[in-house]
Amino acid sequence: MIQESLSDKLLKLVFYLILAVFSIYCLIPFISVLASSFATEGEILKKGYTFFPKEFSLQAYKLIFENNTIFRAYGVTTFVTLVGTTLSMIFTSAMAYAISVKSVKYRNKIAFFVYFTMLFHGGLVASYLLISKYLGMKDSIWVLIIPSMISAWNMFLLRNFFATIDESLAESAKMDGANDAYILFRIILPVSLPALATIGLFYALGYWNNWFSALLYINDPHKFPLQYLIQRIMNNLDYVNQVSADVHIPNFIPPAITVRLATTIVTIGPIIFLYPFLQKYFVKGLMVGAVKG
């Protein structure tokens, strides 16, 4: 076992202190939003955001759950995230494996066409016309999934990881009569868990946080995803006043600011707990896919 010198220990201590300070710095805004969401609207207006609200209140959360708008948006976003991530992983894995196999003809040309899409884009108008007019997906739940199904960056990252896997695994399976689909799903994917967890987290975060697609293509309020609903709440105080009209309390101040804070807390809850379970795979998947690609 190699003994660490005093300078190495001091350097490691400095790094730990920097990481600790940076972590606290990142947590401060979240803690402030969480604490302020339980304050009254009057206290926020008078004293601003706080870490220790003196007047504890659940008015904002009661207002959010007054009707089923949030629950419906939760359902839409959950469906889009689960189905979208699953389909994205299937198609991305299939394409990444195809262009990682050296025996596949024209694999470099196919990879170039995919890479070309990372450099040049048809533009927002062309995309809107294609999706809404020619593909007929406007106001469909699938418009939140299909256009974002494959990311070129994620595909190349996964391809680089597949390229690090020993070719003898696939060759021995082929000698036993296995086809490419069997090799991919029964041999390659099980040993690619770090990369799959990394790419899956990327896709899940992308689907969960997507609101711009709903802004362009969704008009039906029953199909609004969660993040787009937040965006509407943030930019339209009439929503808060409209829902507050059903609350009959003397001297009641519509909790416009606290509703924004409470909505933020409610919506980030599920996805923020996903990262700790994937964190051990996250760094490993990135490093292996990037260094040996």
UniProtKB/TrEMBL annotation:
<keyword id="KW-0813">Transport</keyword>
<feature type="transmembrane region" description="Helical">
    <location>
        <begin position="183"/>
        <end position="205"/>
    </location>
</feature>
<dbReference type="Pfam" id="PF00528">
    <property type="entry name" value="BPD_transp_1"/>
</dbReference>
<keyword id="KW-0472">Membrane</keyword>
<dbReference type="InterPro" id="IPR000515">
    <property type="entry name" value="MetI-like"/>
</dbReference>
<feature type="transmembrane region" description="Helical">
    <location>
        <begin position="257"/>
        <end position="278"/>
    </location>
</feature>
<dbReference type="GO" id="GO:0005886">
    <property type="term" value="C:plasma membrane"/>
</dbReference>
<dbReference type="GO" id="GO:0055085">
    <property type="term" value="P:transmembrane transport"/>
</dbReference>
<dbReference type="InterPro" id="IPR035906">
    <property type="entry name" value="MetI-like_sf"/>
</dbReference>
<feature type="transmembrane region" description="Helical">
    <location>
        <begin position="110"/>
        <end position="129"/>
    </location>
</feature>
<keyword id="KW-1003">Cell membrane</keyword>
<protein>
    <submittedName>
        <fullName>Sugar ABC transporter permease</fullName>
    </submittedName>
</protein>
<feature type="transmembrane region" description="Helical">
    <location>
        <begin position="13"/>
        <end position="39"/>
    </location>
</feature>
<comment type="similarity">
    <text>Belongs to the binding-protein-dependent transport system permease family.</text>
</comment>
<keyword id="KW-0812">Transmembrane</keyword>
<feature type="transmembrane region" description="Helical">
    <location>
        <begin position="73"/>
        <end position="98"/>
    </location>
</feature>
<feature type="domain" description="ABC transmembrane type-1">
    <location>
        <begin position="74"/>
        <end position="278"/>
    </location>
</feature>
<keyword id="KW-1133">Transmembrane helix</keyword>
<feature type="transmembrane region" description="Helical">
    <location>
        <begin position="141"/>
        <end position="162"/>
    </location>
</feature>
